[in-house]
Each structure stands twice: as structure tokens, then as C-alpha cells.
Specification:
With 464 residues, the protein is α+β, with helices and mostly antiparallel strands. Helix content is 61%, strand content 10%.
Amino acid sequence: MGVDRGAAALLLAGLAGCSMAPAYRPPATAVPQAFKEAEGWTAATPMDQASRGKWWEAFGDPVLNDLEARAEQASPTLAAALARYDQARAAARIERADLFPQVNAGGDASRQRLSGRRFGGNGTAPTYDDFSVGATLDYELDLWGRIRNGVRAARADAQASEADLASARLSLQAAVADAYARLRGLDAEAELLRQTVEAFGKAYRLTATRHDGGIASGIDVNRAKTVLDNAQAQISAVANERAATEHEIAALVGAVASDFSVPVRVQPLGAPPLPAGAPSELLQRRPDIAAAERRMFAANARIGVARAAFFPTLTLGLSGGYQTTHGELFSKPSSFWGLGPASAVLALFDGGRRRAEVKMSRAEYEEVSAGYRETVLGAFRQVEDAIAANRHLADQAVNQRSAAAAAGRTSELALTRYRDGASDYLEVVTAQTDALEAQRALLSVETQRMRASVALVKALGGAV
């Protein structure tokens, strides 16, 4: 009998370690040794534990630093992501509770009067008190890993939700920085237009004076008035766009747009140097990739939960306590206990429900597996796009700066020629318009460079 009991114990121990989930293997993802759009970048040591830090401080702007801090504290988007993470953690704890016995305690107190005419009652109607207190214990033996796989899946979901929180935080930080870059670009453009209106106003007054002296025609005056009024109209358009961008920032930092403002500052942000990184790091520090991988693990574990339904469930019970109708309640004669009920349940026929649930869980795994690969491919595309944008915009800025300088000199020469009577005002208008457009194009390129820098930091998982 001792040998039989030992073999049974070993069998139960072995069964307790069973798991119906397939062996988990993340899909192989080919990682290039270097980014195509950035020469000299090579594979690096994984940085999954590295702190991302306050990457926006590389822009060197205290106003941006303050806005990022306010967004961290008051953004409703971030608060919602944090609440979802708390829900996922609570769900994981709920699943984990099934690993342990469920213990319940209770008590009863009653006073009864029995009928004197009951069977065997011999005509007497006794009255007595009945008191009981006790506890019950129920425990499901997890022979096939149903509970353990459910716990693993819930933990992975919580980890995915944590990565979602990190992704939401990074997206919020990038959105604030991007909107702030656009705001400063608009400030610079508004200042350019103000200076342009001042210059165009002087040219208009010069033309009007020449017209009054009979030197210039009315056509010249109208041309000068046209470019002046167009520049003034563009100031209003830029002001409208700036107001909308300021309101956008207010929503991002959790402020009421009516009470929020960012002071004008005519000093566009400079694009920081490209962060050093490599393709291998993406799989380690991108929170969206981490979330996709954890959901894939959870889906794999749920296959085990579905497969375990083909095997019987075994539940053990234990109860005990004290009961008395007279005398002391908490005394040895009043005690009772019971082992059981012990139940084993196996579904014999369910119309194909369990097979369908296994197929559904496998299909869900295939779906999230494809989603993981799609996320990885999208991450590499975003980095390549951002690197290319930073590199090409830097070259564009050099050429555009040269073009703006040349257009400015042309405008000055055209106005000088007009004063000297060597040309008509059409040449001045054309030169002034070209100069304004070239300078606005330069500001646009500089703003795009700032935004491309933000996009690259976001694509690399928030590292600089």
C-alpha cells in the first residue's frame, strides 16, 4: 500500500506540472545590421533597462520643459492609460487568486420549537437553541494547467498594458513637442510678416509719393498696395493658426484653452543631433513592440486554457467547526469536521464547443502574431522615414537659406533700381514676393526639421 500511495503522489505531482499551452516561441524577425538611411549606424547592445530620460531637454527650451511636466501631471489621455493599466493589474490578481484554496467562514444562530405531534414526538413540544460556527475550504487541483495558463495570460496582459502606458506617455510627449515646434515656427513666421509689412509699407509710401509727383503711375501704387495688403492678410492667417495650435497644446497638457497661453518667442528651436541607435535596439525599447509581444504570449497561454477543457476538473473540499444546542459552543464535544465533497467533472458531449474554442484561441494567437510582425515592420519604417527626413531636410535647409539670402538681395536691388528710375514697379513686386516666399519656405523647413527630430526620437522609443 505504501508503494501505491507513493506512486499516486508522484503521478499527482507530475500532473500538477502539466500545461496544455504550446511551447512559446516569438516569431523570428530579421533585424538588419544598419539603417539604410543612416551610414555608420551598427547593431548595438540591447537597452531594455536603459532610462529614456527627458529627451525633450535636448531642445534646450525651458518653456517646452514646463509643458512636458504639465502634460505628465494633468493629461486626461495619460490618466486613462494609467487607469487601464490598473485594471489589467487587478485582473491579473483576480486570476492569480484561483491558484489558492478558497476559505469561507460563517455562523448560524437559531431558536426552534418543535411540534408535539411530529413523528416520534410523544406529544411534547420542546424549544431549543441551535448555534454553529465553522469554515469551509475548496481547492481545485490544477492538473492540466488551466489556472496557471490563465494566470500567465493575465500577467502578460498586465505587462502589455504597462507597455501601452509607456507608449501613451511617449506619444503624449512627442505630441506636445511637435505642437510646440509648430507654435514657435508660427511665431517666427509672424515676426517675418510683421517686418515684411513694415518694409512693404515704406515701399508703398515711396510709390504714392512718386505718384503724387507725377513720376509713378497709378498701376505702381495699386501693385504696392496689393503686396502690402496680402502680407497683412497673411499675418491674420498665421495668428489664427497659432491660436489653434495653442489650444491644441492646452488640451494635451490638460488645461482649459480659455485660461491657457504660451508667450510669443521669436527664436525657432534648433534641431538636436540625431540620437545614436541601431535596429537591434528597437525590439528592446519600443513600448508598442513590447506590448504586441506580451499579447502574443497571452494568446499562446490561452490556447492551453482552451485545451485543458478536454480533461476533467478535480475539486477538493474540507469543512469543520462547532455546533451545539446546549452547553458550551467552543468545546471538544461540540466540534465537527468533514472531508469532502471531492468532485471530478468531465464533459462528455458539448456539440463541438470545446474544439471550436481551441480553434478560436489558435486563430487569436495567429492574429496577434501577425500584429506583432506588423508592429515591428512599422517601427523600422518609421525610423527609416524619420532618419531620411532629418538628413534631407538638413540639406534642404542649406539650399533654402541660400535661396532666401539671394532673394533678399534681389528685392533690395529691385527697389534701388526703381528709385533710380531704371525699372518699373512690377520688377519690385516680383522681387519682394519671391523674397517673402523664400524666407517663409526657410522657416517652414526649419520647423519641419524640429518636427522630424521629434518623430525620430519617438520612432526610436524615446531615447536620445
